[in-house]
Amino acid sequence: MDTWESLRMAGKTLAANRLRSTLTMLGIIIGNASVILMVGVGQGAQKYAAQQFQSLGTDVIFVITGTDNARRNVIAPPNRLVLADADAIATQVPTVRSVAPQINGSELAIAGNNTKRATLIGTTASYTVVRNADVSSGRFFNEEDTKRNARVIALGAAIAKDLFPQGSALGQTVRMRGTSYEVIGIMAEKGAFLGTNQDDTIFMPITTMSSRLTGKTSPYGVAVAVINVSATSNDNVSAAQFQIANLLRLRHRTSDINADDTFTIRTQQDALEIVGNITSALTIMLAAIAGISLLVGGIGIMNIMLVSVTERTSEIGLRKAIGASPSDILTQFTIEAVILSLLGGAIGTGIGVGGILLIAAVSPLQAGVSIGAICLAVGVSGGIGLFFGIFPARQAAKLDPIVALRSI
């Protein structure tokens, strides 16, 4: 019997038992759809994270107080970065374009009858340049505001709506800890970043925040949490990182030349690689979990095919009696198993691609259809059908025609 005849007979047999064939394919359908969907969502998460980091600016460097080991040492906390360090970086590092020191806090903001717990950032006028932050209306505070400790603030887009739902926030006042601050600007919407809504942030001059809210927390000046730095170009990021490190080592070095650094320098690329590694690991884990259903689907195919062999014992005996060879029987049952797997894989692929497109339409994730994931899922499903279909097919091929005919 030729392959075409085996295909035709396998198709007729599967069509005659539509419900059983559909239920047999269900595991493969779910497995394929899950693998493709999980890989697509994982890749979408990677793209979304990359876009979020790029929105900060591609040449951004973050100088953070302490190292990982020092920050875990509660008894001897690390020397803090101070405002003077930021000034030194701005004036002494030639590969640096702008510097924006930053103090972080959280305060209850009150405007009339409306209150809102907001993230508070004290910084300088350079923040908008370094962190690629735009002002939608009004203005950001300038160097003069910082020098005179002006009581002015710029509101994130979301908190501006929460505090002033009935009209414009520009020119209005917001109270924090009993002090009034004039709203001089509304920031453009930026959305959430690493679980933090950037639009729920209030910005004020760093000198105002340190003198009125946080106080002086370092004997060497105004302590800062982060120094945001932008290099003169993307090509100079590594050079700027090296020069900043050398400058701060000179400023913070103790008498011990082997002392550890009291700061950590991270670039945008470092952060992007960390997030990329995390999302890649999660994608692989999710795809592996989803792939288990492919294995379950293969076992289901073997189960049903074994039942089919038992039900069709008389048919097998009759075919052998009229001249069908064991290889003919083996080929037919193997083809049936492969057809079930490939057809289930194709249907699952369609469902998975549809799910990805739906997620991309209703969420910020730019989930994409991975051709590699499709090829892998369909190939694995076809291989599973072949692997799990061989055993029932061999069982059918080994049937003694005399014994099989007695069952008629």
Automatic annotation (TrEMBL):
The chain crosses the membrane at residues 21-42, 284-309, 337-361, 367-391. GO terms for cellular component: plasma membrane. It comes from the Bacteria. The keyword Plastid does not apply. Residues 288-401 form the ABC3 transporter permease C-terminal domain. Keywords: Cell membrane, Membrane, Transmembrane, Transmembrane helix. The keyword Membrane applies. It is found in: Cell membrane. GO terms for molecular function: transmembrane transporter activity. This is ABC transporter permease. Belongs to the ABC-4 integral membrane protein family. It is a multi-pass membrane protein.
